[in-house]
DNA sequence: CTTAGGG
DNA sequence: CCCTAAG
């Protein structure tokens, strides 16, 4: 069986359709002990999973996965909301917060959870209270999230729920988009039944009301708890091996100064309309995994509210080791820095929610529940195995200097804290977990992200283009070959998600289908692109292009030789040329990376020299002849 | 948006 | 690769 871990992060910003999950949760605590919390979350998750599984046995019917017309989505949603206002809200809220829910089915979980709660008379009251609290806290995000979850959620089949803490759901991969939609909107009734279906491969776990404080989960109150969701998305989105914690902003924290402090406008709980502002205002951060290296780190994203101002915490994968070094725990950082300065104003941060990495599990339908449990357990274990690290992001930049004071870092009372993020990542490398795999398709959805981000998605077919241009060249696409594991960005604002036309989904699907190997992904704020060393073939193509076009026409070079290599920008080409020139100038022993044939380097120097002269000569004569000496 | 350079 | 100043 294969298990995939995914990282999600929640953001208020935009959402990528495919994105997975997240969730949210309850109101928050102001403490910053994330680590512990996370652990709790995991524990809860595990517990919930078990519980769910146990319950699962009772379920037999299979959810209706027949597609529902896309157009119906909105309508259904509305209906759903009306029918189950409270639940809906709760669900939405969750979804928005943590759940980015890609295709995972957070909403499904929530529903499931709700249903279960409802069904269980003994827990009814509790459930109600939980829902109430959720509802009460529901904020602007609710709607958005809902939309998001709907879209992303493939199927959310809850396995069971633990009223007090949350619920864990299993997602069935077999569902189609329409099916997903249907499920999400339809229903409550089918959700639970679907659980029984063993075809599903995805597993989603959601834990709510995770208390961030060190208190045991049990002690957490709905009002002051944060939720953790763990989801596995079968959707084939990129999965993040890491875990992510989403801290929802507090936009809506009750105690959050009545939302006055909220940066984002919030809609009333009754307002089901989508609220674009919310998203727009917020900075979105994404988690992503370093695509290279075993470093599959998990991060957690969350938001915090700070006396009116909110902090957005996001986790993303850091690709560099040095970032990894940042092991400072959130708590530590906060405490140490917060109190180090005597006269400094106190900065209060509230973590609204945490999302646990999404897990994708593929398991044969004839597998036993026990094996499923074990799979889930292994997945969770893998996630927490390596411990957690915390990073601080300000305006998307990772603050590596732990000695900086918060004030120096820009985290102070008067500041707008929206652009401050915290990242939590699991140390455990994804490779460490045997059963975890990342489907290629997972990366395909990057295009989705791009759509929202307005950034062009990277295409996998760059090599093809190169081949066309340079038949003799054989290029390998590092992106598709060298980086088996990539994470798509997640982010997404509820708003963007909500805004996305349904048609887009189809487009996305098509895109994915046509570009199966694509690993494109959108980078999150502050995220560094994955390193994709130029191959010799690419170098050759570059050299040839420069020989013809010169060294000052990178855009042309790009179009000519790397038009389809979307991950190579003209700036990249320029940079590469720069390094090539440098490489050619140094002793072979000093060169690093894949050795470039001396012949090419010679051409580089020749072309560089030639074009330098041309430039000097033709200072004012733009049109450059496409002839180059070699 | 492109270039050009420094980081 | 990133970031930015310039044009």
Summarize the structure in words.
One of its GO terms (molecular function) is telomeric DNA binding. It comes from Oryza brachyantha (malo sina). InterPro entries: Homeodomain-like_sf (IPR009057), Myb_dom (IPR017930), SANT/Myb (IPR001005), TPR1-6-like_ubiquitin (IPR057625), TRP_plant (IPR031105), Ubiquitin-like_dom (IPR000626), Ubiquitin-like_domsf (IPR029071). Strand 11 and strand 12 form a beta hairpin. A five-stranded mixed beta sheet has the order 2-3-4-5-9, with helices on both faces. Strands 7-6-8 form a three-stranded antiparallel beta sheet, with no helix packed on it. Helix 1 runs antiparallel to helix 12. The longest helix has 23 residues. The chain folds into two domains: 431 residues, no CATH class; 82 residues, Serum Albumin, Chain A, Domain 1 (Orthogonal Bundle). The chain contains 23 helices and 13 strands. With 630 residues, it is of the alpha+beta class. The N and C termini lie far apart (55 Å). The N terminus and C terminus are likely disordered. The chain binds a DNA duplex (7 and 7 nucleotides) through helix 22.
